[in-house]
Every structure is written in structure tokens, then in C-alpha cells.
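Exercise: predict the structure of this protein bound to thiamin phosphate.
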Amino acid sequence: MKVSQLGEFGLIEYLKNRFYLEEVGDDTACVKVGDSLLLLTCDTLLEGRHFLDSYPMSAVGWKGVSACVSDLIANGGKPLYLLVTLLLPDVELKKVDELYEGITRACEFYGVKLVGGNVVKSERLGIDFFGVGLTERFVGRGGAKVGDGIFVSGTLGDSLAGLELILMEKRHYEDFELRLIERHLRPTARIDYIAHISKYANASMDISDGLSSDIQHMAKRSGLRFSIQKEKLPLSRELLEYAKRHGKDPYSYALRGGEDYQLLFTHPPSRINPFLDMTQIGTVEEGEGVFLDGAPLEAQGFDHFKS
Ligand SMILES: Nc1ncnc2c1ncn2[C@@H]1O[C@H](COP(=O)(O)OP(=O)(O)OP(=O)(O)O)[C@@H](O)[C@H]1O
Ligand SMILES: Cc1ncc(C[n+]2csc(CCOP(=O)(O)O)c2C)c(N)n1
Ligand SMILES: [Mg+2]
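Solution:
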């Protein structure tokens, strides 16, 4: 049997069951060391898969750190340390320099210390980020409660529109298009949500593969039914403009598009914080599965062995 028959998440489920990996299933692994709760997570960016050779290397560095930090925040953690493994072809030193400019700038922004890594010669450029954080209260995917509101931070679907615009290789981009491209190239992990998530969320994860896919993991792990409404999905003005110009459905971008690195979390609706850009998109109910406007929602996001 080939792994593509299982798909990315079927493979993880298979490994988890076959080798009794009980801890697997949240954005970070939470381990207790002394009295502290350490959070551990890794993320890889691979040329051709996550970025193209034409991308600014500083953006690739920024994005990798952001993806890693985003998982730590999702579980209510404060990001602290980072290790970086380079899978490196024999490129010009300038390229590595640019990559590290992005990495170190992101570390400074998120208050993370780069403390080590590894270098391996490779046919294709890849960068692996290993992040360490600390939390007072771990918030995983499985803690949603009946009656919780389902919330997302920011807007969804912008990164996918940005990627499509990059692939169009236009000679001139309008301002709104450049803003979408920027969201694809340099997403910002939501460090402004750390206190809110760690204090109030019952369940939390980041949206890296696309809402329609990621929310399935949370519903499954929580063992409850997640009901969401399409018209509640937060869309940016830029995405609406993009969809209008290209005759596309903007909601499809919000449901399928990954790499926005926004947060998906649940807590009682009364805990809404008007100082954060959070939107309630639905409610946690008795039962199982994910429903959009009453109909079962299919996972349409990114899967490494299907996309
Ligand atoms: N090769 C593997 N071996 C063991 N556990 C794995 C492996 N790959 C993934 N996992 C675990 O499976 C779970 C789901 O992984 P998934 O990639 O969906 O989430 P994620 O780590 O939050 O992704 P992202 O970093 O893109 O947000 C996580 O707990 C992850 O640690
Ligand atoms: C050139 C190019 N083609 C496609 C994509 C889209 N993409 C790649 S990986 C991923 C999910 C998150 O990754 P992971 O699950 O590894 O964390 C998405 C949405 C891209 N960024 N660049
Ligand atoms: Mg994640």
C-alpha cells in the first residue's frame, strides 16, 4: 500500500494507532518538565511545495518562523526558542544570508531566541523549524464544550488568493493584489491572542491547511458537532475584490485556503473580546461532524499526499 492511499492525515492516524503515539494530535506536544509545561513543535518549508525559487528568501525565513510560532500560540504558549535545520544545495551564500535575515527578523518580532540547528547537503532547499514554548495552561484541540461559540481570528482565504496572484506572474500588480501577496509571503502569527487563548479558550488550533479541513480535527478530537455559518466567515476587502474581479466565490477561499495562520478556538460566547479581531462563526453542539449551514462540510484543504 502506498501512503497516498491514506493521505497525510490517514498516515498520521495510522502511525498513531500502530505505534501507540498517544500524545499525537495537537498543534504542539505538551511535556511536563519539573513544574513547567513545555510546548514543542516543528514545521518544514520545502522548495516547490511551500515556496518557489522566485520568492524573496527573507520572506521564506519569516514565514517558517511564523508557522512554528503560530502552533505554540494556538496551544496557549509563549514562544521562546527556535532551532533551524537547513537542507541546502550548494547555493550562493547571499541566498542563505537573505533567508537568515528573514528568520532573525521574525525571531526578534516574536521575542524568540534562535539557539541552534543543523546543516545537511540536499538536492532541494528545505528549512525545518523546531520551536519551544512555555504555557501555564495547555489548550488543545479536544476541549470544546457544548454551547461554546466557534471563533476565528482575522480574515480567511487571503493567502490562497495571494498564491494564485503570484502564480499569474503579472507584470503589474494593483495595491489590493500586493496586500494579498504579502499575506501569502509574510503571514503574522497571532501573538496578540496568547493571553486570550490561554485564559479563556476550551479548544484551540491554528488554521494552516484550510478551515474546512482543520475544523474537522477539532470536532473529532472534541467528540462534538461543530455547526458553522458560511455568511459569518470573515473575509477581507482585498479578497472580496479579488473574487469579484475573477468571478470566484470568496467563501470557497476561506474554506479551502491554508496558510493564513489565523486561530480557530472555542469558548462561551460571553468571553468575546471586542479588542481582538475575532468573529464567531458557529456553535459547538451535541453530536459529531462539521456542518456548514446545516449540511455536512467536506474537508477541502491542503493534504500533502492529495494536493
Ligand atoms: N511524522 C509524524 N510522526 C508523529 N507525529 C506526527 C507526524 N506528523 C505529524 N504528527 C503529529 O500529527 C498531528 C497533526 O499534525 P498537523 O500537521 O495536522 O498539525 P500541525 O502540526 O498543527 O500542522 P501545522 O504546523 O501545519 O499547523 C500533530 O500533533 C503532529 O505533531
Ligand atoms: C508553491 C506553493 N504551492 C502550494 C502552496 C500551498 N500550500 C503548501 S503547504 C500548505 C499547507 C500548510 O503546510 P504544512 O501542512 O506543511 O504546514 C499549503 C496551503 C504553497 N504555499 N506554495
Ligand atoms: Mg497547526
